[in-house]
Amino acid sequence: MWSPSCRPIPRAPSCCRAPIVAAPEAVAGRAVRLGIVAGGGDLPVRLVAACQRQGRPVTVVGLTGSAAPRPDEGIADGWASIGEVGKILALLRAAGCGEVVMAGNVARPDFATLRLDWKGIRLLPRVVAAARKGDDNLLKCLVEVFEEEGFRVTGADQVLDDHLMPAGPLGRLGLTAEVTADLERAIEVVEALGRVDVGQGAVVADGDVLAIEAKEGTDRMLARVAELRAGWERRAGLLLKLPKHQQERRVDMPVIGIATVEGAAAAGLAGIVAAAGATLVMDRAGVAARADALGLFVVGISR
């Protein structure tokens, strides 16, 4: 599958089929080229913009079926299926990438119909075995593959250091005594979810667990809560987002944005709590302004 709005993938030169060597490091003061393996959503676009501001060279490989940059962005330098591991590695190596970040939303693949190249076929049993142990094991397996190929894997937060959730309130409102018990209950629930590798979020109001985050993601979870609380007139409760204790944070850090604030408001919640220093906030100023306009708190807590 190819996107007509993006540049075609260049044929990898014969040097890409040479024995594996470590990717090049910074030379003569030049920054190491960053390779972005891009899924869907806004995060890959923000990473590219950050690299441009920093004067850092960057190459983007979009994952077909997940990444969907708009034509005016045109950020993808090449495209590959998540199962075409050899093609992804070849594109990154041919571009001279020394560091790799995996960013954006990627649907869990259907291994029975996944498009594979030879490298993907060889890795499939290992990846399937990891996937059967949960998403965190699957992500750790993917990190190991890139590291074994000589790339250094980094987290989006290392590039977007100004997008990390700070401790305390983002906007005018902070936590109130009314939500203290709900927060304690939500922490208990999310930490339990993390131990069994289920999700990173939960919604609690007046002591009731209204929803836990699973495969559908935060936005759809909040939409379910909005349906459940249709006609509710009083704001109560909160959304909590925390990373799992064993989580591979370089590839799966919790994320919130303006849509999260709007979803929490539609669900009748009083606010959002997230892990300070371990949650990415897409457009911090925009999130704070939208939360203030809707009368919600957005608060970072240290764990």
TrEMBL record:
InterPro entries hit by this protein: LpxI (IPR053174), LpxI_C (IPR010415), LpxI_C_sf (IPR043167), LpxI_N (IPR041255)
Pfam families, A to Z: LpxI_C, LpxI_N
Domain spans labelled LpxI N-terminal: 33-162
Domain spans labelled LpxI C-terminal: 167-299
Alphabetized PANTHER family for the sequence: BLL4848 PROTEIN, LPXI FAMILY PROTEIN
Protein name as catalogued: DUF1009 domain-containing protein
